[in-house]
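ok so dumb question maybe but i'm new to this and my supervisor (M.) told me to 'just get the structure for Methylenetetrahydrofolate reductase' and walked off. so i did the thing. is this what she meant?? sequence i used:
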Amino acid sequence: MTLVSHYKSSRCAISFELFPPKTAAGMDALAKSIEQLNQFSPSYFTCTYGAGGSTRDTTLDVVEKVKELTGLPVASHLTCVGSTVEQLESFLQDAASRSVDYIVALRGDPPQGSDQFEAVEGGFRYANELVELIHDRFPQFSMAVAGYPEVHQEATSAKSDLENLKRKVDAGADIIITQLFYNNDDFYRFRDACVAEGISVPIIPGILPVTNFKQAERIASMCKAEIPSTLAKTMSQNDDPKYQFNVGVDHARNQTLNLIENQVEGIHYYVLNKSEAAAKLLNGLELAAG
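this is what came out, is it supposed to look like this??
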């Protein structure tokens, strides 16, 4: 089953993104979250991949565990950061041996302390090069790539950002999963621009519920995502954790409902390894695996 096949149903397919825990206790807690999230019939789970390969083995451990617990397809992230082509191929061979289904192919962020990406000797500089490698050498993997509704922070313009995205799609990407956003109009503008650019693969919006305003501000600043002024004002007026959780989840639920009304093919949720927010916002919605 390819990634595209999940989005051919008339229903809105959902997926969840996890990250590798640092401790055994974290892995146990993640297993409980996975079991709760699985009740919402996701199409697949993804797991992030640490900068410079710092979580390479743990990422594959997580996706193996998810597959064991759910029986669902799984995707591993893979970045170009700090890796030679030989190391990337080694990871992909390991992923294949562990029955990973999909790869989320990314250039990756610059190493901590640097504001500029630099390829290692013998490595790749651009995500489309990684996509091309996987397409040519590991065709068993269906691939997702990243899109940026509010423009990638290193892009010189929205047009150049779209041109780069099209290069990734033309190199063999099957779907686009977007960076998080909090204003759906940003996504709709991006989707229309992709169509105008000749991009025809499924474009899946990525949603991260705001459950802690300070944390949301930090994450949003890292990826240059704007938090709507009304949401910021409402959340900042009360620092009670339960209040902030409820306001943020309600916003994400309203985003979800509006996206469904505007006929998105699926939604990808960044759950930060916790199930409570996603469970509350999805409860009662008619969403199921595509």
